[in-house]
């Protein structure tokens, strides 16, 4: 039993507790629990959107036909037939054939990149007589001699090469200088092997050099024998050997013979494989033949191979004669063959209209199987068809001689010619005017442009030789080196026209 004092204490405590709980539920505590939350990111995300057109107005959403301006649909339907007709007519028109829009800046058609010289040859007054590019397009080679025939066959000369890709190119110092015992009259680099070059000499010899050798660079030569040429060799070319494979060397001389040689590198000599002789009595009828001093042979001054027909080659003569010949001819030539292991054959099968003087150069078009160009002492470049006697057209190039003519390897309608007046003329047959599209002058007054060669690997480059002993490497613009639309069809039109 509790005492009264204890009972009063319990009662007071109970009342205080009830009042305290009542106040907590009605008025809250003096402090409340603190809630904390931490968040952390290294990047944020954004979303953006845009449109190139403004939102369609409510009228367009309700009526799609209202999207076009009033009358536009009717107008397009009304003119559709007329516009389509004009487009078809323009597509069939030839009014702008040969015209090419140039969206870039206009640049000069030709510019000189290098003027290459061999000082010793210039001191001796030698001329650049021939030029050829290697099959890689990096090396240019030239031969030195003289363009006059004043009995200098015993005078030595040179063949020089420059690698244009070589760092530190010295235009006054050739990368390679070959000493040659006679004047160099013809030069041709091998079509597959960059180190090989074939050359023709004024003495009548044919030589093959191997520039990869370290000592004796003469790989093979014909020497002087009853089977070799006895007069100046004016042309050499590498020819695919149909039966044996590989390449042989074809040479032509003013003695009237065209000889095919095979290479015997082990013996260091060129072996005669086939011989062709051009005799006045065996030339196809229909033209008069001029020969030197009443000789029965026709002196060959130029030769060209057809890139389309391996059986066809062309020759030009001292008397202006121009002949189409066949390698497969079996007709014996009317010449003596004593002391020769190969019987000469008569190759001529067709005669073209002869010129008034020696034919210095012939070159076949790389874009049409029937077209070729010729040039000589009459100052003209003639464009011929293999199927017609007369030339299709003639271009007045010079009042002097034309020493060489060549088609561009990249532009079907472009032809270049080196003249005795010291100028190289470049013609674009697609132009209405037959004037030169560009002219290169090298060597100054009194010097002739003797030789030229387009770079087949890089058609922007053109090499020009001069009688001042310099070899210029010129850069051609796109106008002269890049084929234009419909250019091949224009060339076809020229080939199909009938000679007047």
How would you describe this structure in keywords?
500 residues, 4-stranded antiparallel beta sheet, 28 strands, globular, disordered N terminus
Write the layout of secondary structure elements.
Blueprint: H1 4-27, H2 58-62, H3 72-92, E1 110-117, H4 119-123, E2 127-133, E3 139-145, E4 157-163, E5 176-180, E6 184-189, E7 196-201, E8 206-210, E9 218-221, E10 233-240, E11 247-253, E12 257-264, E13 269-277, E14 300-305, E15 312-317, E16 322-326, E17 348-352, E18 359-364, E19 371-376, E20 380-385, E21 393-396, E22 402-407, E23 414-419, E24 423-428, E25 438-441, E26 449-454, E27 461-466, E28 470-476, H5 478-481, H6 487-496
Antiparallel strand pairs: 1-28, 2-3, 3-4, 4-5, 6-7, 7-8, 8-9, 10-11, 11-12, 12-13, 14-15, 15-16, 16-17, 18-19, 19-20, 20-21, 22-23, 23-24, 24-25, 26-27, 27-28
Give the DSSP E fraction (strand runs of 2 or more residues): 25-35%
What structural category do the secondary elements indicate?
alpha+beta
The radius of gyration computed from the alpha-carbon positions, rounded to a whole number of angstroms, is 42 Å
How many β-strand stretches? 28
Largest β-sheet summary: 4 strands, antiparallel
Mean pLDDT: 84
Written account of the structure:
The protein is 14% helix and 34% strand. It is of the alpha+beta class. The strands form seven sheets. The chain has a four-stranded antiparallel sheet with strand order 1-28-27-26. A four-stranded antiparallel sheet has the order 2-3-4-5, with no helix packed on it. A hairpin with a 6-residue loop joins β10 and β11 (247-253).
